[in-house]
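DM between two lab members

TW: hey, do you still have the Enoyl-CoA hydratase/carnithine racemase entry open?
JB: yeah, one sec
JB: this one, 257 aa:
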Amino acid sequence: MSTDHILTSVDDRVLTIRLNRPEKKNALTQAMYTRLAEILGTVDADKDVRAVLIAGTDDCFCSGNDLQDFLNLPAAGPDAPVLRFMRALAAVGKPVVAAINGPAVGVGTTLLFHCDLAYAGENTRFHLPFVNIGICPEYASSLLLPRMIGHVQAAELVMLAEPFTAARALDARLINAVLPDAEVFAHARAKAVKLAQQAPGALRTTKMLLKRWTDPKVDEAIGFEAEHFMAMLQGAEAREALTAFTHKRKPDFSSFS
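TW: and the structure you got?
JB:
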């Protein structure tokens, strides 16, 4: 089933990875993370691949983690599938491009911080809802987001945890361009193909230099955030948020301190 939920193809030396779980708005399970980590772990050694393109389905990029899956099968330790995926994407030495349409929630937004180019549809909605569900930001976003847009802007996005538009994401320089929804994938793929035609050694070295000064901190942040994230996922605040979601009501955190 996880193979069906992650589709891959290689054309023009571009590896396209599609999240394909539309009935759950491409929410990521641990099985999907395992498969993604396996795919991304082979990219640098694959001579037929010079660039990677990550996309969702036509109307949804990714609605974040499948929280029920995580609660049923708690991820623990540095070898957890989600952490293997995070480190695999962050470590890819070849260019990575993202094509984003529809919802990009939680990790559907934070994974973009580890891509080199990102293009979104005009109706895309980004959301970092972690505190709304009683957990904390992940995927080194507590390091990278303030670095990209400054502390007060980052705090607004992760503390108030309100959805924001593609136009705001562009203004904050989180993405490269906003396009009509129907044009996003073709535009992003054209950029990936152009990257695949560039001098491969020069691209790898350029990417390495761009990331050289933050890579050690990114790895540290991924692990440090994960310790808090996994613990909080089992905590009372997250249980209240999940119960509220199940019963279609607003969570009540008034009794928490």
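TW: got it. The domain at 2-178 is CATH 3.90.226.10 (2-enoyl-CoA Hydratase; Chain A, domain 1). The first strand starts at residue 6 and ends at 11.
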